[in-house]
TrEMBL record:
The keyword Hydrolase applies. GO terms for molecular function: hydrolase activity, acting on glycosyl bonds. This is Glycoside hydrolase family 1 protein. Transmembrane segments: none annotated.
Length: 477
């Protein structure tokens, strides 16, 4: 096997799906705190004010806030080299625009990072993982205002300075390319939804969306420039939700539509963050859509200087693109498409495609030629607890095994892959539905969709399997 000796094996989480303690120690509300639980065929709802009779999953999550020592110890037992987590922005700046940070929030992450480092685990920290403070949405309409750029940079600088000797690996925004789509307006960019309604019915305004996305990319670049001044040894990545797509047929129309959709969804934002400039073809898209962005010349200079060191991304499944009407559909990570007849699907309708990961790694490294880091990948299933307490998730082991073999093949072909963190290494609430029953972890958490349960942690069969994978550096699968 060809994984590097210092390959970073680990797991990934997000504060709003993990921490709980939504109102403790000075924390303010964020956008995720205002989302109710949904379910299959039922969207989460964003409420402009909290309803005391409503269950909000992020308020409790799995209570990592009080279980972090136990959880990190279990990660260490698996042999994690890296643990991806996010800092909850509103735990540091409760409204988002304060001059002085909340010391209790900063101190919490000091304790978390110290616990990681005690076991030799490198923190990989996301600064904004769908956790924009509610105050910034209400006061500034999120990133539609240029003022939010400065508030993000102030927040990022505070974190860089506080943790400069504890955290080496950083990500500015999670899945920023979702800002190209209507569902990203609220979760990624913090645009005010003007009321309560299902998230999949958010009224779309492309002009505002792409202007806000531009501001977020400038904020990311300015933060990176500042980070390198504070500690030149920081390694900073973008974070793309890579929606790998194939044409459903060899029809030239399907092939062309796939190419154009891939450029918009997968390549546009990462071109800006990796190459430091807008791709030429996006100008044609804006022209056809009558989108005119306000981009001062100084912004272009900032984007050129504030580029990332590594391309970090999520990969769960692939979709097909077609102009045919009535083609069978498949689900995905907030984005669906036509079903691929050559692939099997999970019980949630996500098509399983390890070769697609190999293809993605080759495609990305060919385009960008910088180190790649898979920071989300995994299989969400409704795990069953046997009478003896065991959880035999052989399906999850088979999923990971096939994807690790694909990673190895890509490395053998010359791809510089430096790390891998499985999504939801411990069971946590779903970002899409707020449910608990769709589980990804190696560690089972006793909690149901209504937030009821003991929160007891227990090992699944995949726990010991992944432990052996890490110990052998991928040689024993």
């Amino acid at each position: 096997m060809t994984f590097k000796d210092n390959f970073l094996w680990g797991g990934a989480t997000a504060a709003n799906q993990l921490e709980g303690a939504f109102d403790l120690d000075g924390k303010g509300l964020n956008v995720a705190d205002m989302k109710t639980v949904g379910g299959r065929g039922k969207s989460r709802v964003f409420t402009p004010t909290l309803d005391l009779e409503t269950y909000y999953p992020s308020h409790k999550a799995i209570d990592f806030y009080h279980h972090y020592k136990e959880d990190i110890a279990m990660f260490a037992e698996m042999g994690f080299k890296v643990f991806r987590l996010s800092i909850n922005w509103s735990r540091i700046f409760p409204q988002g625009d304060e001059l002085e940070p909340n010391e209790a929030g900063l101190a919490f992450y000091d304790k978390v990072f110290d616990e990681c480092l005690k076991y030799g685990i490198e923190p990989l920290v996301t600064l904004s993982h769908f956790e924009i403070p509610l105050g910034l949405m209400e006061k500034y309409n999120g990133f539609l205002s240029r003022e939010t750029i400065d508030h993000f940079v102030h927040y990022a600088t505070t974190c860089f300075e506080r943790y400069k000797n504890k955290v080496k690996y950083w990500i500015t925004f999670n899945e920023l390319n979702f800002g190209t789509m209507p569902h990203g307006e609220l979760t990624v960019l913090g645009l005010h939804p003007k009321g309560a309604f299902p998230l999949d019915e958010i009224p779309s305004n492309e002009q505002n969306r792409f202007q806000a996305l531009h501001h977020a990319m400038v904020a990311s670049a300015k933060a990176i420039i500042k980070a390198k001044e504070i500690n030149p040894n920081f390694e900073i990545g973008c974070m793309m939700a890579h929606i790998t797509m194939y044409p459903l047929t060899s029809s030239p129309e399907d092939v062309l539509q796939t190419k154009e959709y891939d450029l918009l969804v997968n390549k546009f934002v990462s071109d800006v963050q990796v190459r430091g400039k807008y791709p030429a073809l996006i100008e044609g898209y804006f022209k056809n859509k009558n989108i005119e962005l306000d981009i001062p010349e100084e912004d272009l200079d900032i984007l050129a200087k504030g580029t990332v060191d590594m391309y970090t991304f999520s990969y769960y499944m692939t979709i097909c693109v077609t102009q045919q009407h009535g083609a069978p559909a498949s689900m995905g990570n907030l984005v669906g498409g036509a079903a691929n007849p050559y692939l099997e699907s999970s019980e949630y309708g996500w098509q399983i495609d390890p070769i697609g990961l190999e293809y993605t790694l080759i495609d990305l490294y060919d385009r960008y030629e910088i180190p790649l880091f898979i920071v989300e990948n995994g299989l969400g299933m409704e795990d069953e607890v046997a009478a003896d307490g065991s959880i035999n998730d052989d399906y999850r082991i088979a999923y990971f095994k096939a994807h690790f073999e694909a990673m190895n093949r890509a490395i053998e072909k010359g791809v510089d892959l430096i790390g891998y963190t499985s999504w939801g290494c411990i069971d946590l609430i779903s970002a899409g539905t707020g449910e608990m029953r769709k589980r990804y972890g190696f560690i089972y958490v006793d909690m149901d969709n209504d937030g009821k349960g003991t929160l007891k942690r227990s090992k699944k069969k995949s726990f010991d399997w992944y432990k052996e994978v890490i110990a052998s550096n991928g040689q024993k699968l």
